[in-house]
Amino acid sequence: MTSSEIVQLIAKRTGSSPTTIRRVLRGGNKEVWPGTAAKAARIREAARETGFLANASASAVRKGRFGAAMLLLSTDPGRSHLPESLLHSLCAALDKVGMRLVISRCDDRELTDRRRLPGFLASRSCDGVIVNYTDGYPERMESLLATFRIPFVWLNAPLESRCIRYDDRAAGRAAAERLLALGHRRLAFVNLRTTSTENPHHSAAERREGFLEAIAAAGLSASVHEFGNLDGPAQRDAVIRLLRCDEAPTGIVAYDRADRILLAAVAAGLSVPRDLSIITFGEAGANACGVPLSLMAVPSRAAGVEAAALLLQAIESPSSPISRPPLPFFPVDGDTLAPPPPSPPHVKNRRRP
What is the pTM for the complete model shown? Predict the structure, then answer.
């Protein structure tokens, strides 16, 4: 059914003229009198009964906004980590203020080309942008967004303004303190995701530094191991060697991939958490090989709520600096933490792979 046919059908049902009907449906009707408002309500009700949907673009022109936020992701796998809890909380927070979420993916050329970026964003008909580039984000994009006065917010990026960040340093410190409180004195920080020679996500260094701060405050020393340059089997062997050395740790703070550390411990003949305690970072309820992990949980739900609120502020004040304090992690008890063993299992009794 064409728009003209819909207008004629509404006219028959309400007795209104096509001109009045079109004016009401595009939002241009002045409804200051009770009779006028009642007639407009009958027209809109008849329009709904016919299946008519108001034109979003016309509404946007009238209101000066589209009522939508764009969540911008990379086309490269692994560069836009998006926990389900964050996505759901972001959608719920936007729903409360009458906004919808539009998800778009693009490559770095579109993000960093001053000739292509405005067109890309304009074609999505959104009021603001939430940038979710968690790894290797294009730095030039930040300045371009500011240049074109596009309201934007970053998720989990190393930026002080217009960014929702997590307090990774405090989380690393708290993870070490949980092991120390149980009586562990031989600790290690193990990173199986990245190495110091590449350009890792900022959380890797911040969690490590927080860990080392807690160790130093306790008057102890600890080891740091980065095996991100190794493949899976080589990582397992490296962790096994660590667990079999004379000064093997009884507690490990794992930046990521705690499942690989758990499997290496089993291969080394150790029982978790009787012989080795493991604490990591991640989503609440995470497990490794069916074992609930003890961890510092990423505040993903809070991040979605904060991102929506910060974007609304950015839309209202596109050029003003807006910042939020980092969101704190929260502890989650699992099955991988316990006091250290009275004496570590003897190296000779540990099985060889």
Answer: 0.76
